[in-house]
Write a structure and sequence with these properties.
This protein is of the alpha+beta class. It folds into two domains: 2-77; 80-199, Heat Shock Protein 90 (2-Layer Sandwich). Helices cover 55% and strands 17% of the residues. The chain contains five helices and five strands; from the N terminus they run H-H-H-E-H-E-E-H-E-E. Strand 1 (99-103), helix 4 (111-130) and strand 2 form a beta-alpha-beta unit. The two termini are 19 Å apart.
């Protein structure tokens, strides 16, 4: 059963990666080329101010479409994971407006496991910023006997709960889809601790 679920998750991940590559190599590149052609045409339109303004609007629209495609592609899999989970978590910590200490291994695990772990940490940090009134967060990731153990602890107000259809419940579902498990400890006044265990091979 677990092997079947892992194959389904892996197939879904590979399909998302294919879509990401197709967006980058296909539609995005064609739009960029179209924008460049329009700019060249625009430079030749010097005696019709109205046409020049219209072309400018079109070029701006193309640029916005390219930005949208980049955001969609990023949403499929964070680009920071290209260098591994450790550097991606360090980058996430730098962009979080709290003190975040990261201890993560330099090695690699399966891409779909790295992606799941990344989103767990991202959601936990977002909660620490938005809801916990935390000042410091500790993030750790380590391999242990064929498992990736990810832990996020903050010094905030605590009291977090995995509400149905909420972000934490969504994380638990994501982790379970990979055959893993998530534990949440968040007593009022004692901060929040999220620990996730994901199978990652030997």
């Amino acid at each position: 059963m677990e092997e079947s679920r892992a194959r389904i998750v892996r197939a879904g991940y590979e399909e998302r990666r294919r879509l990401e590559r197709d967006l980058h190599d296909g539609a995005q590149q064609r739009l960029l080329a179209l924008g460049m052609k329009l700019r060249r045409v625009q430079r030749r339109v010097t005696d019709d101010a109205e046409a020049a303004r219209a072309l400018d609007d079109v070029v701006d629209g193309v640029a916005e479409a390219v930005r949208d495609l980049r955001e969609i592609a990023r949403g499929l899999r964070p680009g920071m994971l290209d260098d591994g989970l450790g550097p991606a978590l360090a980058d996430l910590a730098r962009r979080t407006p709290l003190v975040v200490d990261v201890d993560a291994p330099p090695g690699r695990v399966a891409p779909e496991i790295e992606t799941a772990a990344y989103y767990v940490v991202s959601e936990a940090l977002a909660n620490a910023v938005k809801h916990a009134s935390a000042s410091r967060v500790t993030v750790s990731a380590r391999r242990d006997d064929g498992q990736l153990v990810v832990r996020v602890e903050d010094d905030g107000r605590g009291g977090a709960a995995a509400e149905p259809a909420g972000g934490l419940a969504g994380l638990a579902d994501r982790v379970a889809a990979h055959g893993g498990r998530m534990a949440l400890e968040s007593a009022p006044g004692a901060g929040t601790r999220i620990e996730v265990v994901l199978p990652c091979g030997s």
